[in-house]
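In the design runs reported in the main text, the only information available to the sequence generator was the tokenized backbone. The following block is the verbatim input for one such run; it is reproduced so that readers can re-run the procedure and compare outputs position by position.
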């Protein structure tokens, strides 16, 4: 065979090409591969082609001539038309893409191996730090556009993990173990329900649920609660009327994007049984449903006859038809039934509760066959969020609510050396209806290095209260007699006396209507997370009317309030801030009150309507530090709140023009110190003073009915991966009695309370928990009735409970 000689002339190339006869399939494969070659590989292709030609030539020399191959010309086929998706298919595709994106973001943000289990829990609190569930990172309301650490104000947040470890099943128990909050009683002129003082100021009508005012003065359960947010200091720019010392916002559980099914059962001393369920189901990529329920039968530790039964349910949905529309809705029902406990008498001569002298702590003064307490609440909320553009968001929230508070109780007072006590009957049937709509727009934009967030909105609400009382509260016990007071043995009261006739409503109700129209504007400007400025203005148009048979009254107020604040962050994890805010308390703002001595609008009084709103102003300076990889938030603040044009009672008349001031220091910490050590706590120290009064003896006096010093710390430690232990300590200083200033000498003693809990994780699904509340069975008191013949609410004794929870 002759050696191959390279010849690149066109003639030679053509000769060789003329003898190549390859199968169609091979030729097609070659053509495809050639098409995919880069133009820069032309030389390599040419050499490969020559080699192929040489090989083919050799093969041709050794074989017989093959039959000719017929090559069909390629047929050009038209591309099929792209299928058109239906609107529903587009929604599903968008939802799938959104879910995939969320999954990718969650994977990127996944905690390290040492992070807490709550970080991966499908029912984790969306507002809390996933690595430190005791620490809330942000508030639920869209009015607060910055993280909690960047807010120029003190905000205490109790996440659902804190609520669980406190074993706090009611809002009242939250207040009992939170620094800076004092429990209050009802009075002769207002309802016996949830009543709190925040930083020394009455806040019973400053309770909100998901940002909407709840003026019911009800008894609130926590089974449907995601977290409790306590804004300290005037908050009218955010909340509207009132809120001199602060406001409480209850954030409800919402439907989520992951399936979970939780059940918890609790058994305890004092015949305590409770079961809760909480389940979330993703029905489709665009729709989720959450259902929660609670049932409880329980006695009250340390109190004879008293019981506290409850049940309730929550249903919540989330619908996201597109990437830019989200609709959430919920409905909550609670039903509480119990025997009211208005405590024990206070001995004015000894200046002590009678139980601190010679009375057994379980002594009960109510009438078991007559007294009752029922509280029902139903509310439904629809919230629509539309992302008009990436920088403009529209929010609309609508709430319909009805609450019923119905009770007859017995107030013990005036114990005597002869061993008698005066028993007074107290009753109420109150129905509260609320219809509210909140609409706002959030605008986000940049001006150079400054990021702006502006929230502009309007609020419309109508609150209606109908209240009545029960008649014959002596005659139904004895068959004869009038009035509502009887004398009983101090040590052997008439607990089991049969009822001669059923109590009946008087049929002479008072009706109150409040119409509120408000507009507000809130802006936050953030310069490189270094300097953050915040300000807000709000105007409320407030109209109240009250009527009872033969009487009516009304009042109108226009209230303008504002707040300004600045945050300076010299370090990424540390800040200092200063803030100033105002608020107003118009006439009749305490909707449950029946006379002006308690903040209500009485019918038949013409002079009361002339009073202008009480005015509040506050200044606060503080610092916030995010320590231990930003898993622990430590805060400290100095504050002063001053009320002017305050109303006070002089004799039988109510006058305005009084003033008083509260100053103090507020310290707090919440989160994790290490991977195993969680902490939540605070200390509040206050000084109060009446600075102006029509009664000269009041000037310089401390405010009555509040604890000036309070402390609480909750902590737990993970001893092993499946075993945690924890405890809680609470201190409340003495509380002075009185109607305004503390001048009558009545005083409640200070107290400490200690709690313990331990948790053992049996396996991935099953957890057991043991609670011991009030370990040392301390006799202490929640609140003081303000009259000169007071009684005191006695707190529960020691209780032991075992809870078993299953999660799937």
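Verbatim output:
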């Amino acid at each position: 065979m002759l050696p191959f000689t390279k010849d690149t002339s066109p003639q030679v190339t053509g000769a060789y090409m003329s003898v190549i006869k390859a199968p169609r399939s091979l030729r097609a494969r070659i053509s495809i591969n050639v098409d995919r070659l880069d133009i820069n590989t032309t030389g390599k292709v040419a050499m490969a082609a020559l080699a192929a030609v040489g090989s083919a030539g050799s093969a041709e020399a050794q074989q017989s001539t093959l039959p000719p191959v017929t090559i069909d010309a390629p047929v050009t086929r038209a591309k099929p038309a792209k299928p058109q998706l239906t609107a529903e298919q587009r929604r599903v595709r968008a939802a799938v893409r959104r879910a995939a994106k969320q999954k990718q973001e969650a994977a990127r943000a996944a905690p390290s191996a040492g992070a807490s289990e709550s970080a991966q829990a499908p029912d984790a609190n969306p507002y809390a730090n996933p690595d430190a569930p005791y620490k809330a990172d942000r508030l639920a309301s869209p009015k607060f556009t910055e993280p909690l650490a960047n807010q120029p104000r003190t905000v205490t947040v109790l996440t659902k993990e804190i609520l669980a470890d406190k074993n706090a099943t009611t809002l009242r128990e939250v207040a009992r173990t939170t620094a800076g909050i004092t429990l209050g009683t009802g009075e002769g002129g207002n309802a016996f329900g949830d009543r709190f003082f925040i930083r020394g100021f009455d806040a019973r009508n400053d309770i909100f649920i998901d940002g909407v005012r709840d003026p019911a003065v009800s008894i609130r359960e926590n089974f449907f609660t995601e977290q409790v947010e306590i804004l300290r200091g005037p908050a009218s720019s955010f909340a509207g009327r009132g809120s001199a010392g602060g406001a409480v916002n209850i954030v409800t559980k919402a439907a989520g994007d992951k399936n979970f099914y939780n059940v918890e059962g609790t058994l305890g001393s004092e015949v305590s049984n409770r079961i809760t369920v909480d389940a979330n189901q993703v029905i489709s990529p665009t729709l989720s449903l959450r259902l929660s329920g609670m049932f409880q039968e329980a006695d009250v530790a340390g109190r004879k006859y008293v019981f506290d039964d409850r049940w309730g349910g929550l249903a919540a949905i989330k619908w996201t038809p597109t990437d830019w529309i989200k609709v959430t809705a919920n409905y909550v029902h609670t039903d509480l039934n119990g025997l009211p406990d208005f405590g024990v008498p206070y001995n004015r001569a000894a200046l002590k509760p009678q139980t601190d002298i010679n009375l057994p702590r379980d002594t009960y003064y109510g009438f078991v066959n007559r007294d009752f307490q029922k509280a029902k609440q139903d509310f439904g909320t629809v919230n629509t969020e539309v992302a008009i553009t990436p920088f403009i968001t529209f929010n609309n929230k609508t709430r319909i609510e009805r609450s019923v508070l119905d009770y007859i109780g017995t107030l013990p007072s005036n114990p005597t050396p002869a061993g008698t006590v005066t028993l007074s009957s107290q009753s109420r049937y109150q129905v509260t209806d609320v219809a509210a709509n909140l609409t706002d727009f959030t605008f986000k934009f940049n001006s150079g290095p400054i990021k702006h967030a502006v929230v502009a909105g309007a609020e419309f609400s109508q609150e209606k209260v109908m209240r009545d009382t029960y008649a014959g509260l002596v005659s139904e016990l004895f068959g004869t007699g009038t009035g509502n007071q009887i004398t009983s043995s101090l040590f052997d009261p008439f607990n089991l006396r049969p009822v001669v006739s059923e109590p009946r409503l008087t049929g002479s109700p008072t009706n109150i209507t409040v119409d509120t129209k408000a507009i507000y504007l809130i802006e936050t400007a953030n310069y490189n997370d270094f300097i953050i400025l915040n300000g807000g203005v709000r105007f409320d148009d407030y109209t109240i009317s009250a009527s009872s048979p033969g009487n009516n009254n009304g009042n109108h107020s226009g209230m303008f309030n504002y707040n300004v604040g600045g945050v300076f962050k010299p370090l990424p994890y540390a800040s200092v801030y200063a803030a100033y805010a105002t608020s107003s308390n118009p006439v009749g703002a305490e909707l449950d009150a029946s006379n002006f001595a308690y903040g209500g609008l009485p019918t038949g009084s013409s002079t009361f309507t002339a009073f202008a709103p009480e005015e509040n102003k506050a200044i606060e300076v503080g610092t916030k530090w995010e320590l231990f990889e930003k898993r622990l938030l430590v805060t400290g603040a100095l504050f002063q709140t001053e009320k002017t044009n305050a109303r006070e009672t002089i004799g039988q008349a109510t006058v305005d023009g009084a003033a008083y001031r509260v100053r103090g220091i507020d310290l707090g910490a919440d989160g994790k110190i290490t991977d195993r050590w969680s902490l939540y706590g605070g200390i509040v120290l206050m000084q109060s003073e009446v600075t102006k009064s029509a009664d000269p003896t009041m000037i310089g006096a401390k405010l009555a009915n509040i604890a000036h010093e309070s402390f609480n710390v909750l902590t737990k430690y993970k001893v092993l991966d499946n075993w945690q232990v924890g405890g809680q300590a609470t201190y409340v200083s003495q509380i002075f009695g009185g109607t305004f200033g503390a001048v009558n000498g009545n005083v409640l003693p200070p107290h400490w309370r200690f709690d313990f809990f331990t948790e053992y994780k049996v396996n991935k699904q099953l957890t057991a928990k043991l609670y011991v509340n009030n370990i040392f069975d301390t006799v202490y008191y929640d609140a003081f009735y303000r009259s000169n013949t007071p009684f005191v609410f006695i707190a529960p004794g020691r209780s032991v409970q075992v809870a078993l929870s299953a999660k799937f």
